[in-house]
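MODEL INPUT / OUTPUT PAIR
PAIR INDEX: 1
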Amino acid sequence: MRQDSGVDGDAQRISQLCWMFFLKIIDDQDQEFELTRKDYKSPIPKKYQWRTWAADPEGITGEELLAFINGELFPALKALPVSNKTGERRRVVRDVFEDAYNYMKSGQLMRQVVNKISGIDFNDLSERQHFGDIYEQILNDLQSAGNAGEYYTPRAVTAFMVDRIDPHPGETLFDPACGTGGFLTCALRHMREKYVKKPQQEQAMQDALRAVEKKQLPHMLCVTNMLLHGVEDPSFVRHDNTLARPYISWEQKERVDIVLTNPPFGGREEDGIESNFPQHFRTRETADLFLALIVRLLKPGGRAAVVLPDGSLFGEGVKTRLKEHLLEECNLHTIVRLPNSVFKPYASIGTNLLFFEKGTPTKEIWFYEHQVPADQKAYSMTKPIRFEHLRPCIDWWGGAKRKGRDATHQAWKVTAEEVKARGYNLDIKNPHVVADDHGDVGRLLEQLNLAEQDTARLRQQLKAILGEALTR
């Protein structure tokens, strides 16, 4: 694909690969369902099924292949009619192709890519699991693919959050800004390993998933991710903006048991979105709007784990009102503070994992400061955060009831009254870390003056040398 002049950068390559993976996975599933289910009908018309136009390695290629994909395949799948009779799988196909695009300009190169993908049997469990690892790496590559990195949360972080929330099959689990589906896949893996023993439990687990993604590329990546992880009907992944719906329109029956999410932060919502929220919560800051909505969406006893930037902890105005509301409506029992380098290279700001439960006000908050391993200065692309790095926090956590927690060099506790006295500023530094002694201020200023004098002297010397060279 790098040889094709139409594909520019990793984000486009990943987008291109994704719609092709999607069609192959859907077709493999269809062939299995046609054998195992009476009267099953594929959501894709026969002419556009992978087995018809792509499976034969000696099939159409070159300009003929490009003309078919651009002139027939894409228009047909974008315009698939949806009715109650055809079911949700057809809607999934149409939604995926709604904003998809074929970037490749060489039909010969495309045939080579198609043939590679055709070599994978997604009905073979071992092959699917192996490909799942490859797909995970593709998603990981998004971190360096320009702005596409914003859709990816390090898997160590998602796995840790899921492990601490401990979802069970049948509990409604919602990610209102799901990106590529990292929290959903981690939750599926967690429940299958710990709780799913019968087909009914698997079905209950899948039926209880909810997700929304605003942008086309991560939506397509997420749907494909769900298919790869054995989800039969990924139509619960809606291509929409969760915040575009009025706050008060979320009814009691739509409340959920669990919210796991990393909402976009640092961004601004489009004009008018904030008017969907009550006056005292109105802001253009995306993360704040999501936090307000999450508190509303949780059932009594519901639990949430949310990634938020440092700014949400110390910010004032709307942020203060939001934190007051959070502490009154929920038990904000734990904040895990992460170092700046966890989300590099996409973002280099401090982030925090907030864990809370709806229904009882906060009495005390435990803080845990995660530190980079001693043998490295920071996390990076080559040395990212790993799940085992978070194991000490799990050991400290204190079980499901969080009993027996102790203050340590990395953990400390504050009361809700202390937070209130601070004006709801939650940016509380580790009291066990002594601030670095940078020395006497007067001596430091003297050293600075000497350094500036040296710089000026060197600048004059360089100027003289250049002047002499120019006059020769």
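PAIR INDEX: 2
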Amino acid sequence: MSKKSDELREKILKMVGEYYQETFEKPKAEADNKEALCAGRVFDEEEMRHLVDASLDFWLTSGRYADQFEKEFAEIFGRKHALLTNSGSSANLLAIASLTSPKLKDRALKSGDEIITAASGFPTTVNPIIQHQMIPVFLDATIPSCNIDPSHLEQALSPKTKGIFLAHTLGNPFDAVAVRAFAKKHNLWFIEDCCDAVGSVYQGQNVGTFGDIATTSFYPAHHLTMGEGGCVLTDQPLLKTLIASFRDWGRDCWCDPGKSNTCGKRFAWKFAGAPPSGYDHKYTYAHIGYNLKVTDMQAAVGVAQLKKLPEFVQRRRHNFKRLKAGLSDLSSIFILPEETPGSVPSWFGFPLFVRPEAPFDRGQAVRYLESKKIGTRLLFGGNLLRQPAYENISHRVVGTLKNADFVMERAFWVGVYPGLSDQTIDYMVQVFHQLPSACV
């Protein structure tokens, strides 16, 4: 880069800061507090500067910012390896796909194997199991946590059981210590879906550090954002290599970006179908893979967001606490959320359940809240087996799933994301107290 190029870049980035202040900062200062979105992106001029800085490199795939994010995120999370991908859903896909590798020998997942999971949750925790022709074994939810009861794991076990794949619902941890002990006892793979739970802690340990693999999402609604994006984390070098292979077209090469001969024999790689002289390792394919990388522009936004993560987590906890205190006198009509004993959640949202004896149903409640500019969301798919996409899947069920049905009929959640001020939380509390009379 020439001196003139450096000067121009510096000038551009300064102007980006000015643009942010004029375009986003002023409207935010004038915003009406009486609008409570469920979630949203929280950013400032630093994210915009990073984004433009990466675009000026015109390195349109993963690059220096992706490398930086993976290193820093792994350290923050407390894992050895972090591999960026283009969404949390892709992270879940890569988690399952990597465990099908023949390189895992007798521990490789295969068609017909059973994976224990939750009946109530987000579809893309379960979808990779089905897409790989495995059998999801559904456990019921507990109320109000909407996580599974680990005492039911033994009932779910069969000779075909090979893994457990569970999400920490809305950031509230499940009993990861019990699940890990069960997985270890029966030599099962354990995947933690932390897409809604970055920053949550269970028994003094970050969620996402209990399982063999953890996944996260960086969609705008989540704890930090790249717009789109996700990450797969592990401590095991072999799993790191396999995840990278499935993410990067299925190739066997383990060279870092920008490197081309880590193994020292790039052009003489041997495998059964190779020519006698060998084959280029960068074009040797060990798996039926994908291209699920991020761009460096996305990663650049993530690097700026990482600096704000402690503040984001603290604010989510603060908003949750303030909202729960304000709604505590409505416990006769709502089942209010409770954190898992021994946990410190990084709440994704504030879940509520309309009690059967309430003077209104969920539909009436959410329509009224939405009319008052309070965003609501259902608890994802509810009982997934009630959803059209899952009517004819091969599966097994433990118990009746009556609580998953309760979730589907009566649960919803509202926001606690860092963009909500104390005044907005107080407005939400005020509107909730209008519900009994407004919905009659």
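PAIR 2 NOTE: The first strand starts at residue 81 and ends at 85.
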